[in-house]
């Protein structure tokens, strides 16, 4: 007969055995149902937990002994906190290695997930690059228009030169004189930009003199020579025509050359873009496939660690449930014995306390 049965026998009338059955059924506590291991899953490699759990003392492994402990504490003046702390301490020794192992598994899983996220970010960036590359359209280059404008500008300058040469020929047979007058009049060809093409620029007398003096002097020299062979009206018209050409033709020629350079740069950029559309996407697609393989390898590496952590968490949960069940069992017997303690005589208490 255990101490618990002996304790209840003090309150059991000999003629009423049903009373004992009623009391025992009142104090009976069902052990919590622990999750059964699933055996129908396909075999998966899971790393060993590599955790050696300390064995529990006999008074924790045997529920009847724990019940007796609860009765003894209930009959004495001691409180239940010390025994509950002892139960929690024993189970804490078993759960601490599992908690550490779970933390290690979690850190390893987080490391793998960070690497997987990096691969996925690289894949996203490469996909974005491919889309941006395909969305880029070749720039429009007005090469034909620019070449036509350049050709017309050159013809205009050549015509202006021959007009000057014909005007100066009666007085100056040497053609180099005509070339010098022409280049002096085309002085604006060497300046950065004519004030005719600038907006919101303050025109000073010095700027006006710098840009107009040589073209005006050249046109005036040609006008003086034209008066010797032509009428005043014809010479005046020649003066105005040549002077305006001097002011604008040089800048027009330079602008056409700049447009030609820009158009050639655009054509080169378009060819480079077409080459990139043909060469870069296959390279990036291979990199994306490699990143997919690397991420899949990391996921495969992560899977057994996830399984191991799940098993460790399940084992930790079972231990905690078992601990709480034992604590509740002890408390129920303690509270029942404490509630019935005052109904016992001193002799009955001594008999129970000295029971072996």
TrEMBL record:
Assigned keywords, A-Z: Coiled coil, Membrane, Transmembrane, Transmembrane helix
Locate the transmembrane regions by residue number: 143-164, 176-196, 208-227, 233-254
Q: Is Coiled coil found in the keyword set?
A: yes
Residue ranges annotated as coiled coil are: 102-136
- What protein name does the entry list? Uncharacterized protein
Where does this protein come from, organism-wise?
Spirosoma taeanense
């Amino acid at each position: 007969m255990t101490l618990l049965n002996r304790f209840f026998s003090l309150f059991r009338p000999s003629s009423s055995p049903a009373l004992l059955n009623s009391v025992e059924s009142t104090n009976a506590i069902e052990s919590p149902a622990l999750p059964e291991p699933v055996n129908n899953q396909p075999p998966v490699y899971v790393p060993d937990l590599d955790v050696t759990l300390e064995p529990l003392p006999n008074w924790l492994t045997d529920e009847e002994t724990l019940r007796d402990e609860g009765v003894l504490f209930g009959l004495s003046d001691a409180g239940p906190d010390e025994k509950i702390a002892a139960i929690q301490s024993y189970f804490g020794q078993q759960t601490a290695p599992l908690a550490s192992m779970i933390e290690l598994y979690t850190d390893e899983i987080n490391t793998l997930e960070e690497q997987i996220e990096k691969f996925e970010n690289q894949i996203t960036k490469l996909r974005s690059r491919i889309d941006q590359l395909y969305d880029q359209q070749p720039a429009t280059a007005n090469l034909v228009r620019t070449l036509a404008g350049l050709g017309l500008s050159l013809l205009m300058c050549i015509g202006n030169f021959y007009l000057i040469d014909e005007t100066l020929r009666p007085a100056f047979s040497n053609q180099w004189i005509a070339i010098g007058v022409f280049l002096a009049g085309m002085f604006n060809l060497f300046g950065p930009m004519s004030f005719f093409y600038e907006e919101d620029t303050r025109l000073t007398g010095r700027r006006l003199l710098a840009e107009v003096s040589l073209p005006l002097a050249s046109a005036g020299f040609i006008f003086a020579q034209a008066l010797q062979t032509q009428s005043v009206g014809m010479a005046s018209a020649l003066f105005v025509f040549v002077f305006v050409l001097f002011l604008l033709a040089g800048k027009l020629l330079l602008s056409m050359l700049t447009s030609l350079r820009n158009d050639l740069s655009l054509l080169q950029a378009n060819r480079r873009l077409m080459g990139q559309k043909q060469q870069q996407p296959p390279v990036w697609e291979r990199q994306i496939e490699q990143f997919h393989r690397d991420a899949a390898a990391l996921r495969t590496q992560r899977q057994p660690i996830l399984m191991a952590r799940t098993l460790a968490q399940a084992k930790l949960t079972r231990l905690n449930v078992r601990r709480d069940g034992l604590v509740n069992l002890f408390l129920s017997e303690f509270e029942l014995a404490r509630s019935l303690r005052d109904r016992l005589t001193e002799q009955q208490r001594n008999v129970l306390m000295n029971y072996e």
